[in-house]
Amino acid sequence: MNVGYILTRTAKNFPGREGLVVDGRRLTFKEINERVNQLANSLLAQGLKKGDRVGLLFYNSLAYFESYLALYKAGLVWVRLNYRLSVSELTNMMRDSQASAIIHGPEFGKMADEICDSISVVKLRIHQGEGPGLGYEELFSSGSKEEPSVEVNEGDLSDIWYTSGTTGEPKGIMITHRNILTCVQFLLSDVYWITEDDKLLTVGALSHAGSVRVLPFVLRGALNVLHKSFDPLEIFKTIEKEKVTDISTVPTMLLTLMDHTERQNYDLTSLKTITYAGSPTPVERIKEAIKIFGPILDQSFGQAESIITITHLPKHEHITNNDPERKKRLASAGREYPGVQIKVVNEKGEECSPGEIGEVITKSDLVMKGYWNRPGQTAEALKQGWLYTGDLGYQDEKNYLYLMDRKHGKIITGGLNVYPREVEEVLGLHKAIAEVCVFGVPDPKWGEAVNAAVALRSGTDTSDQKLIEFCKSKTASYKTPKKIHILDNLPKNAYGKILQRELKKRFSG
Questions:
Q1: For residues 449 and 441, is the Cβ–Cβ distance under 8 A?
Q2: Are strands 25-28 and 273-277 parallel, antiparallel or unpaired?
Q3: Taking the model in full, what pTM does it have?
Q4: How far apart are CA 394 and CA 354, in angstroms?
Q5: How many angstroms from the chain centroid is the CA of residue 299?
Q6: How many CB atoms lie within 10 A of CB 275?
Q7: Angle ∠(449,453,454) on CA atoms, nearest 5
Q8: Where does residue 168 rank: exposed (0-12), middle (13-18), buried (19+ CB within 10 A)?
Q9: Which residues in the chain land under pLDDT 50?
Q10: What are the structural domains, with CATH classification, of the chain?
Q11: Do 77 and 159 contact (CB within 8 A), yes or no?
């Protein structure tokens, strides 16, 4: 059993059913499976063998979709390259993983030139469009449409998934086929109640969570609609045209869709689930999203080391009915998925009492095999089967998890602890604020001073002093930011997460 079998099974059971809409094409599951098999067999015929690492560098596309599934079927290991990263970052990932090959889209020829010129380990280059190496479409003429004969099992390595690098140098996360298959099962059992009539629109990069979230829909024989990149107007048009039922977002995407001036001009009523995951979202904005889209929001908390799946706040728990306790839970990350264990522990590794802040740890078949070629950092993260996430939070009496910040993001000001999340929730109450990030900067008097960076909603106006006064009226003085920086946009990494460290560096000193 391996991840590629998901497509094999569906193509056997629903060969004529439409499975993918992308790049202006509509393909059945049989057509997709045959193309994936051709590609997988051609890659093996080029001399690649089970366990070899292959970097993929694409915008979301048919070629990307079938390439990563072909790697899974061939027993090759997908090195996930995000096109938003710099050439030097991508080169370091290829060098670190000792990747034997790179497959890339037509937009990335120059980047691939620089990568291949910088490292000698890449022996095979496959491209769309013009350029050195093998042409992508040429591979289909020589590859068999039969299933690859290589034996790929659950415990085999499937991916090297590099961390986002928000807190340091990216590390290669070793993911197995079992990890991904477990994630698909959890999503099917607890998030996606999928029928063959459902349709998922994927707008986030396949190099991240999107590649996993499409798989439950493949398994059910439902339709996947794939967009090249995030474009709000195209999203609205596609939802209306295709009658999309499900869409997966990160909070920055969700907020952009909410605030877009053209949203009300489109029929979005076919939507039955909007998932949002990746970083905490201010409660006031969640309430606003529910008013706009209806009770269809579904939140997940996870990280790549646990295949984006640790805890879950389902749709029905977003319906508060003016119950204060249920309203409070909108600030939580929910409770663990079935099959997942979580604890919050102190620095001694002892389990914390309800309400006590500590590090979130988790254990399940989702947890990574370790960090590629980093035994020391693997030993720090994995202890007795438990993954130490680096996220700080607490559980309440009913085991709902509330996230506060990354372990190294806590601010100590005047000897007192301030968790950025709690200040961000306060600023999130202000009607002018679209996005917010709170961080500490060195201060000779306080040790660290609380600072905030905000981006305002279109058509609104306020000042830093007014925002500081607003905070003073709603939280303790030591938690109130000493400075608030109003920016046009907050810096984000390749996965849409706000870069707290970059803001801290910009405004320190």
A1: yes
A2: unpaired
A3: 0.86
A4: 7
A5: 12
A6: 23
A7: 145
A8: exposed
A9: 166-167
A10: 4-13+26-176 (3.40.50.12780), 230-405 (3.40.50.12780), 409-507 (3.30.300.30)
A11: yes
